[in-house]
Amino acid sequence: MVTMGEAWEFLLLLAALTAALWAAFGGVRGLHAWAWELRLGAVARSHLPPGDMGWPFVGNMLAFLRAFKSSDPDDFVASFSRRYGGTGIYKAFMFGTPTIMVTTPELCKQVLMDDDHFVPGWPKATNELVGKKSFLGISGEEHKRLRRLTSSTINGYETLSTYLPFIEKTTTLTLERWASKGSIEFLTELRRLTFRVVMKIFLCSEDEILIESLERVYTDLNYGIRAMAINIPGFAYHKALKARRTLVAVLQNVLDERKAMRRANLASTKNDTMDKLMEVEDENGRKLSDEEIIDVLIMYLNAGHESSGHISMWATVFLQEHPDVFEKAKLEQEEIRRNMPPMQKGLTLKEIRKMEYLSKVIDETLRIINISFVAFRKATKDTYLNGYLIPKGWRIQLWYRNVNMDPQSYPEPYKFNSSRWDDFVPKAGTFLPFGGGSRLCPGRDLARIEILVFLHHFLLDYQLERLNPNCHVQYLPIPRPVDNCMARITRIN
């Protein structure tokens, strides 16, 4: 029989062992932070932001993944705020590097507008997969040059007017096909629709087999972009590297064919974005290299269908969940259709500009969903932000998700409320769906047109019935229902 004294001895021993283990683990974490901070010097260390650099090698990634696999991804940043106060700037260890996390609108704006002290600092996986010659991987004059040469190929009134008829035709035919089916994975089908659009715009391709196979390849690529750079079979990065090699091979083959035609003096009938990228040159007569063209296309093709597909799905879901918003948006689209000239066969940019309320629905969807929830920079020199040191070479994470969900800017931030945009212009740095500063997404106008055209026709002629309306949402790499929004699409007139 165990006596009371023996029981107390056991409990004390257990408590001592627990305390020892806790101290040991805390010591390991402390040594990890000490090893990175030691090289800074005592004065610099004293000016670092508060924070926690986590475990050796993995840093804070386990806590990050745990939060984003839960139903509360915002708890990751919130845990820093709870422990270290609402400074809006914290030290951490993310994606294999010491990192300063910036979480408030004003501080994010300061970083975004300061290209001298902060350059792109994306994780290795992102740089390798999107491409070292894409907008993400370059800075300074090289970035300005590439942006200047390529933006004209997808922006501007004339260019967007050229794309609009194909976007609308593809959308209406696809909606008709969905309505003739039973249940579909709404998100999967939307991603295929938007990928079909960007394949036509960028490569003038309507090959359904090629489009479907490449869309699957892009899915693998996208899952690796925000993963740890672990090149071992079974890990997302390893699979994504294979996907990139496939994409590079396909695009290089198309590029070689176009070059061969030009050498043979055979004019291309495509006149798509690839042709335009082959033709543009800077003021010194320098044209884009093959690597630049391919990396730009990989980036545009990925961003052009991922963001448009996901936002189209979520906006449709929110419209169905909020009948008052649905009716208001539908009335606007009915008026636009009624006022179209009798001989006009489809939408023009004139009608697109009249979709004011529907644009508010899209802005509210972008704010809540946060397609790009974080961006990355790197300090070019020791820099102070809000009184705290960001050491040279350290990464900076700009938490767009926190900015877009800031209750100071957006009361009841988790509530879908498109009317919050009535007579409301967000302050600079408080709404970052497409980034900011010199890194503002160059394809945002095309993406918005794709979404507006889809929602216009959906509101007027269709309705959505989700089969699992309460299914769990997965937040990485982009928020989506785990069933990819299984639904039935029904024509209503």
TrEMBL record:
GO biological process terms held by the UniProt record: brassinosteroid biosynthetic process; brassinosteroid homeostasis; gibberellin biosynthetic process; sterol metabolic process
GO molecular function: ent-kaurenoic acid monooxygenase activity; heme binding; iron ion binding
Membrane topology: Single-pass membrane protein
Pfam family for this entry, one: p450
Pathway stated in the Swiss-Prot or TrEMBL entry: Hormone biosynthesis; Plant hormone biosynthesis; gibberellin biosynthesis
Keywords for this protein: Heme, Iron, Membrane, Metal-binding, Monooxygenase, Oxidoreductase, Transmembrane, Transmembrane helix
Similarity-based family: Belongs to the cytochrome P450 family.
Name of the protein described by the UniProt record: Ent-kaurenoic acid oxidase
Annotated organism of origin: Zingiber officinale
